[in-house]
Amino acid sequence: xxxxxxxxISKASLAIWLGVLIATITIKYFFIRSTTQRSALEFQLLxxxxxxxxxxxxxYRVGQLFGIDELKHWVRVIWYFSFALTDFTxxxxxxxxxxxxxxxxxxxxxxxFCVVMTLGLLQVARYVDRFVLETDQLGYVVSNGVPAGNTIxxxxxxxxxxxxxxxxxASRKESKYA
Amino acid sequence: MLDIxxxxxxxLMAVAVxxxxxxxxxxxxxxxxxEGTKPFIASDALLDEYKDIYTNPTDDQMVRLGKWRxxxxxxxxxxxxxxxxxxxTNVSYLSDHRSFSRIREADKxx
Lengths: 178, 110
Hints:
In chain A, about 85% of the residues lie in helices and about 0% in strands. Chain A is built from five helices and no strands. Chain A is elongated.
């Protein structure tokens, strides 16, 4: 039951991230009166949406190749490593961008990094478990871990959006009495 | 081709882990040095910006200086707010003042 919900949220996560990104940018730049230091969250969300779209494209293309015997090994390697590759690239690129632009980090930003790193490591671990060690023990962990990871990211960004809305309302009240 | 992908990912994984640890370790020394109710730019970053305005003069130097002044005033207001909040929580102004990394370094050298 929970797995079904997790998978559903995971499937909708890309759209939710995009919606939160647009909403956060709109609220921060049009409704919050006080000048605040630029937050890393918007940029991280933007890169996250780009990464998510890229992953959907890879999933779609590689999914079409399932069932072709000549490409069996090729498809398996691409399947696990392309996801890991996008996760690690996202972490490196976003961290360097945040440091370069001196953006403000939050618990939400750090949480997203932790989840994405875990998902990347999980993909590599699953490949090693299945094809190098041939123990095949991580199947359940990966099949549930990926939707759970996406759901955690979704919860984090939605909570940050709620926080932004509260700050926006508070800022409007402040300016009203100023 | 596949080997490149596999080894490339492993190398990237190592780089990502190192980058991530570096990010978490250096976080306290950057722009999050103060957590006031109104977020503001770190004093070190402001100082660097001020130096940059004078060392790399441009046509809009005075405009940049005006913007820098606004930021500085905003910082002062936020710091005052933080100071008042710290007074309520028994954190002395001196400890807060010394939370600036450059002041800490200067203290050490004396």
